[in-house]
Design goal:
Blueprint (H helix, E strand, L loop, with lengths): L4 H24 L1 H5 L6 H14 L4 H9 L12 H17 L12 H16 L9 E5 L8 H10 L3 E5 L5 H18 L4 E5 L16 E4 L2 E2 L5 E3 L1 E6 L12 E4 L2 H5 L6 E5 L5 E10 L2 E6 L3 E4 L3 E5 L6 E5 L10 E3 L4 E5 L9 E2 L5 E3 L1 E4 L5 H4 L5 E4 L4 E8 L3 E8 L5 E3 L5 E2 L12 H13 L2 E4 L5 H11 L7 E6 L2 H5 L1 H8 L5 E6 H8 L4 H14 L4 E4 L4 H6 L4 H9 L5 E4 L5 H15 L3 E2 L2 E2 L21
Parallel strand pairs: 1-2, 1-29, 2-3, 3-25, 7-8, 16-19, 25-26, 26-27, 27-28, 28-29
Antiparallel strand pairs: 4-12, 5-6, 7-11, 9-10, 9-13, 10-11, 13-14, 15-23, 16-22, 17-18, 20-21, 20-24, 21-22, 30-31
């Protein structure tokens, strides 16, 4: 094949520019590189080379390489310098018929793979026998009391157990870990304990409570026929439901719960005198799951009659103290809302008989810095982006928000819902006082600490200072969930690589709102690439197979998302009623996908009977 000299000269010139920029960045960041832990030294240099490579618009270079049949530098993240020198050697041989000496000491493809594999093992431990990508599972509070549940999670393929410090307390966490250790010993398996620090949470405050009543409401179709029964959690008052799929919570005495078995029925009359039944379908620790096909209203003190399966006799208890019903603030496009520093309960808007606004809807927020660091005109989002507004007025005690996007029929804003201000520059400490208190437990019991809302290198440094107080130092996972965190990621990584083991979590929920829904696909791609250049393992997080975990049935979109997750070193699942079933499905998807893809690299397994223009059904059977 004859290659045109002018094309080869263009390619060589572009490669030389990238190599020169690489040397320049190595000198510029020499101090930062000198502080990196020896385990990460070569990886940090490779990260610098990758940033130099990506500082050029290389589309034209890649196209020219493809035209002459050379590698297009599309998958060079883990071994940048070796790839550039290989191209330069080939071009030099064509132009001058000479072989240039190979640069020594740079990371090869094989070495890059080994470094990433080693760092992943340091952070997550051994991989599963037939699966390369790890599975992280968020433990519900009931894992503290239900050993068999934890044992089953481990048996199905859980590689690391996540405990969220925003929920429960050290006594519950200790019991969770004890159950996990017992299960690990029983199965002779490795499973790491990951603990999330809550970080500075920006959420809505409380709303003025309604009456103490629960409404049991099964799902119905347009003909009024029940399509899905209401899921009821029955337990002592201090035992929280294991996931968010619950429709109603009924508190009863512990002794009464202990006598309830699967298949039993609870009968009661609701506030209207309607006779209703709750069928018990599952035991979970000190609680019971029930289902109800009746629409019913229940108050504190309602009599419950237990009918035992295949047994005579009845036992009676009464519903304990119910929490007041949660109220909502209904917001429409064009409405206004006051966000205030005063923690007084929020209230919906009040209108007079003529429909004239008498009192603007108002609610507090949990982060006082909002009133110091925001500016008029900045966007604001509520409840995972379901409601969008803009700041019209900013004061020391309150903000006036104009609602821009909501349902025409009105969107509900509830208490304790997330608030995002993506364009606001908050001056926040990465660790709250609660985080520092939680670290006393975390440093002693966790293998890895997950640091929330990492925005800059100083957030990592603050965690270093705190961990220096303790003899046991867990590994660190940096949760990237803001626009600022993404923009500062290379600098954050370079600073964090002073310690090991290290990982990054793509917290895609907040990140999507912060950076814009249209941008999240490219941003999660960039995070994967930057971390691969540093040989740092990544956790693919937020709502992975969420519908299946909560309802037992996956959507097509989340199956595709789970398949994409194979490109990360670990996939995180959240809590859900059907979490066991979800782990099993995710395990199969990941094992199947690793035959077709390794990180971004496409694999080509043998296509059975390809030469006969037909496919065997067994080729794609993953169930």
């Amino acid at each position: 094949m004859i290659m045109k000299p002018e094309k080869l000269i263009f390619i060589e010139s572009q490669i030389d520019d990238i190599l020169n920029k690489s040397k320049e960045l190595e000198k510029r960041y020499a101090d930062e590189l000198s502080r990196v832990h020896p385990l990460y030294r070569k990886s940090a240099v490779n990260l610098i080379h990758y940033l130099a490579f990506r500082s050029f618009d290389v589309d034209n270079l890649q196209e020219k390489l493809r035209e002459i049949g050379l590698p297009s530098l599309s998958n060079v993240e883990g071994y940048v310098m070796r790839s550039l020198h290989a191209i330069k050697m080939l071009i030099g041989a064509q132009l001058r018929n000479t072989i240039l000496p190979e640069r020594k000491g740079v990371i090869s493809y094989k070495k890059g793979q080994k470094l990433l594999s080693r760092n992943t093992k340091l952070l997550f431990g051994q991989k599963s026998k037939k699966r390369r990508t790890r599975i992280m599972v968020t433990l519900p509070g009931t894992a503290a009391e239900d050993y068999r549940f934890v044992n089953q999670l481990l048996n199905l393929g859980m590689n690391s157990a996540r405990i969220n410090c925003a929920h429960d307390n050290p006594d519950v966490w200790r019991k969770m870990i004890a159950n996990l250790q017992r299960a690990k010993s029983s199965q002779n398996k490795n499973c790491k304990v990951m603990m999330d620090l809550g970080g500075p949470k920006l959420r809505t405050g409380s709303i003025k409570p309604g009456p103490q009543v629960i409404h049991i409401k099964p799902a119905r179709n347009t003909l009024g026929i029940v399509t899905e029964p209401a899921r009821i959690w029955i337990s002592p008052p201090d035992i929280a439901p294991p996931d968010d799929s619950v429709n109603a919570i009924i508190p009863v005495t512990e002794s009464f719960v202990s006598r309830i078995k699967r298949g039993d029925t609870l009968r009661f009359e609701d506030t209207r005198g309607k006779k209703c039944n709750i069928l018990i379908v599952k035991k979970r620790g000190l609680g019971r799951w029930g289902i109800c096909n009746d629409s019913a209203y229940m108050t504190s003190g309602t009599k419950l009659v237990l009918h035992k399966l295949n047994k005579t006799g009845k036992e009676i208890d009464h519903v304990g103290e119910l929490l007041p019903i949660s109220q909502s603030i209904i917001l429409h496009p064009g409405d206004t809302l006051f966000l205030h520093k005063d923690p007084k309960p929020g209230e919906p808007a009040v209108y007079n008989d003529g429909g004239i606004l008498v009192q603007t809807a108002h609610i507090s927020c949990t982060l006082p810095e909002v009133f110091r660091d925001t500016r008029p005109g900045e966007p604001i989002f509520f409840d995972d982006g379901k409601i969008e507004g803009v700041l019209e007025e900013v004061g020391d005690e309150k903000l006036l928000v104009r609602i821009k996007q909501a349902r025409v029929t009105g969107s509900k804003l509830n208490a304790d819902k997330g608030i995002n201000l993506p364009d606001s520059d908050f001056r926040l400490s990465g660790l709250t006082e609660k985080d520092k208190n939680d670290l006393v437990f975390v440093a002693k019991h966790a293998d890895v600490v997950n640091l929330s809302f990492v925005n800059q290198a100083t957030d990592v440094e603050e965690l270093f200072w705190e961990l220096d107080k303790y003899p046991d130092k867990p590994g660190i996972i940096l949760k990237i969930e803001t626009k600022k965190g993404f923009e500062n990621l290379p600098g954050i990584l370079l600073h964090a690589m002073q310690t090991y083991p290290l990982g990054v979590m793509i917290a895609r929920g907040d990140l999507a709102i912060e950076t814009g829904w249209k941008n999240i696909a490219t941003i999660q791609e960039e995070i994967l690439r930057i971390c691969e250049a540093a040989h740092i393992p990544v956790v693919w997080a937020t709502q992975v197979m969420d519908n299946m975990a909560r309802k037992g049935i996956p959507t097509r979109a989340e199956i595709t998302d789970a398949a994409m997750a194979q490109r990360a070193e670990c996939v995180m699942l959240n809590k859900g009623l059907y979490i066991e079933k979800t782990i099993k499905m995710l395990d199969k998807i990941l094992r199947r996908m690793q035959k077709f893809q390794k990180k971004k690299e496409i694999m080509l397994p043998k296509l059975q009977d390809a030469d006969q223009l037909r496919l065997s059904h067994d080729q794609y059977n993953i169930l």
